[in-house]
Structures are given as structure tokens and as C-alpha cells.
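Q&A log
Question type: sequence-to-structure
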Amino acid sequence: MSMNRIVPIMALLFVLEGALVPWLIPDSFDDRIIPHFIFVMVIFAALYRGRFASLMIGAGFGLLQDIVYYGHMLGVHFFLMAIIGYFTGLLLEKKRVTLLMAISVVGLCCIVYDSVLFGIYYVFRITNASYAWSLIHYILPSLFLQLAFALALYIPLRRMFQSRMSNGADDEEE
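Response status: OK
Response body:
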């Protein structure tokens, strides 16, 4: 999948994440579930496109999220999305990605992302909740939403990336 297709898809997800999804979440979970669909796409970019593409995508859309949605501190999402995407791409470079592996990586990366985000907010006294309380009330409910989103997108994204790889192999043969 070329960057010409990734960026508009992520821009659409960016708008959906902030405008449509809060309307779909039930009122009882409204303040507990925080969608990170952009971050899931950064992880998929790390799995299929490589570390540098995920670094650029994570930095760009993370900064956009910092500016538009989260005004507490500028640069936190920018840094976390870029660095986690880069290291995921670095660790899983040239590995065959199966469904179980992709979902596991997305789950682990989402927990790391939310935990480090909580740690930064805790250090700078933006939150005063304990980590155990935040894990139960925010991180795990949000994790299930991200995993369901990743599971729903796995097949279409894999097909798009495989079609790109097979088209690239055909171009090299000619």
C-alpha cells in the first residue's frame, strides 16, 4: 500500500475517531473508552511498511492529535506514536505477520502506549489516579476497542499490502 493510500485512510480515521466514535460509545463508557484507531494504523504500518514509514506516520498524526484533541501537553502523542511505531517496525522487520501475531503486537503496543502516556501525565501531575485504577478503568476497556478494530481491519489491510507486494514483484520481473 502506498503512502498515497495510507494518509487519506488515516485522515478519515482521524475524523471518525474524534467525531463519530464518541457518539457510538454508550453513555456509561463515555469517559472510560478512548479510541486510538490512528495508533493501530501506525502499528499496522510498522508491521507491513517498515519502521521509517511508521515513524513518519506516527509523528505526523501524533502531532495532529496533540494539537486537535489533547491539549494537556504538546508532543506526548507525537513522541509515543512515532517511537513505538519505529521500534515495532525495527523488532519485527522481515518477519511473516500472522493474525495472532498482529493482534498480539497491537495489544501489547496499545498497553505500552497507554501506560507510558499515564506515566507522563502522572509525572507532570495532570492525573493523580493510581496506575491500577487507570488500568482497570481506562486502559483495558480501551484496549478491547482497539483489538476489535485491529481484528476488523486485519484482512483488508493484509490484502492491500499483499497486492502491493505482488504488483511490485511483477514490476521487477518486467
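Response note: The longest helix spans residues 131-173.
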